[in-house]
Design goal:
about 500 residues, 11 helices
Length: about 500
C-alpha cells in the first residue's frame, strides 16, 4: 500500500469516526427530546431512569447504525474530498501525475469494508437482540402483555390468544386452527388454560424406533376437535381429562403377548401378569390415534387390575401418550399429542363411552413458532430484525410472501445501494469547475434523489426483485457515466 493510499484511508476513517459519533448522538438526542414523556411513565427513580434510557438507546444504536451507516459513509467521503479540494491537496496530487480515480480508489475500498460492518450488524448483532429492539420506551424492565391475533406458523396453523405475557412466556386461553399446506382446516385445539413453549422428548410411533424430541407448545385444559379434508368429526372429543378409545388394557395386553410370541418369549396366563413393560404402540383407526407411553422400557408401562370373571381387565398407564394424526401413512401430520403422568381405564356402558381418564393431562402441539416470534411480530418492521437465513425460512409461511421476498432482496441490495450512493456523490465533489458549496449542494440533491427513488420503488408494489434492484441498475449506470466524465 502506497503512502498516498494510507493517507486517504486514514483521512476517510477519521472523518467517518467523527461523523458516526455526531450522527448517532444527534439521532438519540432528537428521539429522546420528542419522547421523554414516554420514558418517565415508568415512575422510576432518577438513577433507574438514566439506566433505562442508556439501555434502550444502547440496543437501538444497532438499528440506527444499520439505517444510517450508508449515509455516514457518503458524508465521510464527501467531507474528506471536500477538505482535500479546499486545501488544494487534490491539485497537488494531479500535478504529480496521479489520477483522481486512483485517489478515490482506496476510499471506495474502505467504504466497502465499512459496508461489511453494516452487514455484520444486520446478520450477527441485531437478530439475537431483536426482543430488546421491539420494546417500547415506557417498558423499562419487561415488555407488556399483548394479544396474539391470528398468527400463522410454518405448518399453516393459525394461533390466537387473548393475552401473551412475555415475562413468563405464557399464552392465555390459546386457540389453534390446524390447517393443511393448502390452508384447508383440519382440526381445532381450544384451551381454557395456558400455553407455554416446551420440548416433548421420548415420542415414538414404533416400539424400537429412536425417540424423537419435538419443539412446540404445551397447553392445559385443552380439547381437540377434527373436521375438514373429508374426515368427519370424532364420536367424542378428546381432551386433557378424557381420551375416548376402544384400546383398553385388554387390547394392549393382547398386543404385548403377540409381540412376545413373535420373539419366542414365554407368555404366562393372564392372571399371572400384573404389569407389562415394552408394550408396542397401538393404533385406533377411528380417531387416527396412536397409544404409547414415555416410560423406560424396563419400567412398568401398563399396570393391570386383577382379572374379574366376565369383565374386561382394567388398569393404568404410566406416562401415557396419545398421538392424533391426519393419517398413519409416512409423513402424516400430527394434530396434537395428549400426555399425562398416568391414565386410568374407565370401562363405559358401551364401547364408545370407554376412555382413559388422565391425571395431570396436557396437550402438546409441535410447531416452529417460538416465543421470540410472538414478540417480534408486534413490530411493524419485524422482518428487518431477522437474519437473512431466517428470512429465507420465513418466505413460504409469511403472512405477506411478497413482503418477505422483498425484505430478503433488500438485504443483498442495500450494500450495493450504499456504494452507488457514494459513487453518485463523488463526481460533484471532484469537479473543479464549480465552487465547493455548489458541488456539495448538487451532491446532496443527487444522493437525495436516489434515496427517494429507492423508497418509491419499494412502496409502489413492483415485483420484489425489480423493486430492490431497479434503482441500482438505473443510478449505477448514471454514477459510472459521471465518474468517467470527471476530468482527471
Amino acid at each position: 500500500m502506497r503512502t498516498l493510499d494510507r493517507y486517504v484511508i486514514r483521512s476517510f476513517l477519521s472523518s467517518a469516526a467523527m461523523l458516526f459519533i455526531a450522527v448517532m448522538a444527534l439521532r438519540m438526542v432528537a428521539d429522546l427530546f420528542f419522547n421523554m414523556d414516554e420514558f418517565v411513565e415508568s415512575n422510576d427513580t432518577f438513577h433507574a431512569l438514566i439506566q433505562h434510557i442508556g439501555t434502550y438507546y444502547g440496543y437501538q444504536s444497532l438499528m440506527y447504525f444499520s439505517e444510517l451507516g450508508g449515509v455516514i459513509i457518503v458524508i465521510s467521503a464527501a467531507f474528506t474530498l471536500a477538505r482535500m479540494n479546499h486545501t488544494n491537496e487534490l491539485t497537488a496530487m494531479l500535478a504529480s501525475g496521479v489520477s483522481l480515480h486512483r485517489v478515490i480508489l482506496p476510499m471506495v475500498v474502505a467504504a466497502m469494508l465499512m459496508g461489511g460492518l453494516i452487514i455484520l450488524d444486520r446478520e450477527v448483532l441485531i437478530p439475537p437482540n431483536a426482543h430488546n429492539l421491539v420494546r417500547e420506551r415506557d417498558q423499562a424492565r419487561e415488555m407488556s402483555e399483548f394479544p396474539v391475533n391470528l398468527m400463522a406458523d410454518g405448518n399453516e396453523t393459525i394461533w390466537w390468544s387473548q393475552l401473551y405475557h412475555p415475562s413468563t412466556e405464557t399464552m392465555e386461553r390459546p386457540i389453534l386452527t390446524i390447517r393443511s399446506p393448502q390452508r384447508r382446516r383440519l382440526a381445532s385445539a381450544v384451551s381454557g388454560g395456558v400455553g407455554r413453549p416446551a420440548k416433548f422428548a421420548g415420542y415414538r410411533e414404533r416400539l424400537l424406533a429412536r425417540p424423537e424430541v419435538l419443539t412446540g407448545w404445551d397447553m392445559t385444559a385443552t380439547a381437540l376437535s377434527r373436521s375438514g379434508q373429508g374426515a368427519g368429526p370424532w364420536r367424542n372429543t378428546p381432551s386433557v381429562e378424557k381420551i375416548y378409545t376402544q384400546i383398553g388394557p385388554s387390547r394392549m395386553l393382547g398386543e404385548a403377548k403377540e409381540l412376545a410370541r413373535q420373539h419366542n418369549i414365554p407368555v404366562p396366563p393372564d392372571e399371572q401378569i400384573p404389569s407389562v413393560s415394552g408394550i408396542p404402540p397401538t393404533r385406533d383407526d377411528h380417531y387416527t390415534m396412536i397409544v404409547t407411553t414415555r416410560s423406560p422400557a424396563d419400567a412398568d408401562e401398563l399396570v393391570l387390575d386383577p382379572p374379574a370373571p366376565g369383565k374386561p381387565r382394567g388398569g393404568r398407564l404410566n406416562r401415557p401418550v396419545f398421538v392424533f394424526k391426519t393419517t398413519f401413512e409416512p409423513g402424516g401430520r400430527i394434530l396434537g399429542i395428549f400426555h399425562a403422568d398416568r391414565a386410568t381405564w374407565v370401562q363405559g356402558r358401551s364401547a364408545v363411552e370407554s376412555h382413559w381418564r388422565l391425571d395431570n393431562g396436557r396437550f402438546f402441539y409441535p410447531t416452529d413458532l417460538k416465543s421470540q416470534d410472538l414478540v417480534l411480530r408486534q413490530s411493524s418492521k419485524w422482518m428487518d430484525l431477522l437474519s437473512t437465513a431466517d428470512l429465507t425460512r420465513l418466505i413460504d409461511r409469511a403472512p405477506d410472501r411478497d413482503a418477505a421476498i422483498l425484505a430478503k432482496h433488500i438485504r443483498f441490495a442495500d450494500p450495493i445501494n450504499n456504494l452507488v450512493l457514494l459513487l453518485l456523490g463523488l463526481p460533484f465533489i471532484l469537479s473543479r469547475e464549480r465552487n465547493i458549496k455548489a458541488s456539495a449542494s448538487l451532491s446532496v440533491l443527487m444522493v437525495g434523489s436516489y434515496f427517494a427513488f429507492v423508497q418509491i420503488c419499494r412502496l409502489v408494489g413492483l415485483p420484489p426483485m425489480v423493486a430492490a434492484f431497479l434503482p441500482i441498475v438505473l443510478f449505477g449506470t448514471v454514477a459510472a457515466v459521471m465518474l468517467d466524465a470527471v476530468k482527471t
